[in-house]
Amino acid sequence: MNSYISPVTRSALTPLNTVTHLWNQQSPYNRRALSIGIVHFGPGRFFRGHLARIIHQYLAQKRFQDQRWGICGVSLKSRRTITILQPQNFLYSLIERHHSEENHESAEVIGSINQIVDGTEDHEYVLNLMTSPAVHLVTLTVTQAGYCLNSRFHLDTAHDAIAHDLTNPATPTTAIGFIVEALRRRREQGMAPFTTLSCDNLPKNGEILQQAVLDYANQIDPQLAAYVRDYATFPNTMVDRIVPQEHDSYSEYAGRLLQVCDRAPIVTEPFWQFVVEDKFRGDRPIWEDAGVIMTDDITPFLYMKSRFLNAVHSFIACLAVRAGIEYVHQALRMPEFYLFTQLLMDDIAAATPVSDQMCNPYKEQVLLRLSNEALPDAIERISSETSRKLGKYIVPILQDAYSQKMNLKRLMLPIAAWMLAARESAIESGTFYHVQDKPDIVTATQAGAAFSQIVGLKPCECTEVLDQECYQALRDLRTYGLSVTLKHYSQERLSNEIISAA
Predict the structure, then answer these.
(1) CA 43 to CA 51: how far, in whole Å?
(2) What value does the mean pLDDT take over residues 389-409?
(3) What is the pLDDT of residues 342-388, one digit of tens each?
(4) What CATH superfamily classification does 10-297 receive?
(5) Angle (nearest 5°) at CA 287 between 84 and 359
(6) Residue 296's CB: how many other CB atoms inside 10 A?
């Protein structure tokens, strides 16, 4: 495997025990000179592999020119990240791996996180920091659950944590509660509000976050809500990088590439993308210099990420579940899977209002990324909560395809494959399959519920067509098996004729 090591070369390495030792010898910038300009809620693995790395790269490029963007992470759920990283002074190694036609392996130590604190214990420290004139950005990767939303993506004021914060606004326990209380204090002190940036995988995440903050603020004080609406900004973002779950083998990479012992290495792919709506009133990093895309219209980027990565990820997982395949790259190694996925992405592109000039390179890149053998991505992980992902990523594609009178057979086949495995509690070979979904979804699927019922679509002409296509795909899979059905559905001209197994 071709490999390189950043920030030092292999010949320069001497045996070192910790990432702190390596940083002290080969640091690209002075961490002691960093001021905290970013408060981040949710300092988990994705954040450390994405935003923290981007800020690190920016700080390394600017060196003495702009050192205002050190990060204070705030954990609201667990002290585990603090316990692991504190002995390393919140330093950790980031390893990028890709194995295909061109092999790639690199490693570096990330130093952009000044500290991580427990927000439930140190709420006053966090709030004081958020009201500091030096803090211009508050960022979040708290997952959808961390926003305490209802099914309509509005704030659930009956949520236990939100109800607590509304009763005790000066001692918040949620990210929403912290943001509103900090904005209230800044308003009271005559300070400009910070920009709040959601980095979670939600559609129009900035707008969703803004509405949740406004709903909460309005419960506290309608005038505060008006201040937030008029002066605070919540740009939409699109984040993209595959950061798999932690694995015991990851520490080996840090030891081999950097000759350090790292308690919390992050292993990820070389690809990353961060697209940000250019809607800031205060200071921000000039992070275009680090590869961030600033745009006035984030919509096409959201379409591409949700449809060609998220939806395709789930489509492949649905097929792989039925086939009993363990990892994504193993599925794409099979010719019938790879060809079907290519054609499926063509169908998605035809239903998506984004130009071919943007779609085509992104499609090729996604196939390359998902084929990465050096970063095994478990089907079990991707196929969990499939019903939610169907509703979030795939139903909008189906609705657009239906409105354009497209053939829906290929788009429905993976869904039928998952439904069949769920109904039978078995993969195609007959081995038991445990469905990781909500109990009511599992019960309904095993009772023979239609696709539209599983994802909660209201009856209409579109749902009738989708259910009929799903029924046909289920019948084909039962009759001819997955491999033959994939090959048939990969024909250039699709028809509704009965499959010939010959």
Answers:
(1) 10
(2) 96
(3) 999 999 999 999 999 999 999 999 999 999 998 888 999 999 999 99
(4) NAD(P)-binding Rossmann-like Domain (3.40.50.720)
(5) 100
(6) 7
